[in-house]
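Changelog-adjacent note: as of this version, every example in the card shows the full chain rather than a window. The one below runs 114 residues end to end.
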Amino acid sequence: MFGYKRWLTAGLLLTILTSAFVAVAGETHVVVAKGFRFEPEEITIKVGDTVRWENQEKRQFHSVLFPEPGDSAADYFFPGETREKTFNQVGTFPYVCEPHYESHKMKGVVTVVE
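Full-length structure tokens:
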């Protein structure tokens, strides 16, 4: 009987911890890079969510650079590739495509809310 109660308690604890983890894990939102634009250009997400940028061009590379927080040079991602960033604090985070901001004003904004 003692072993059964211990097993039941362990199972209940595991279920609670798994449920808490699932509740904390955020959603993934997709932003498409195509035609020298980010679509959508502005996106609102919740704390803990992730944004995935997908390059859907045929030949063109892009980048995602957040110049405000002092982000270093962004690495390029090529057609069919993606980049992701998880946002863990509330705020407004403007970003640009480093090689195409001057010529095409390729930019976007991620707004993070509670």
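Structural remarks: The two ends are 45 Å apart (CA to CA).
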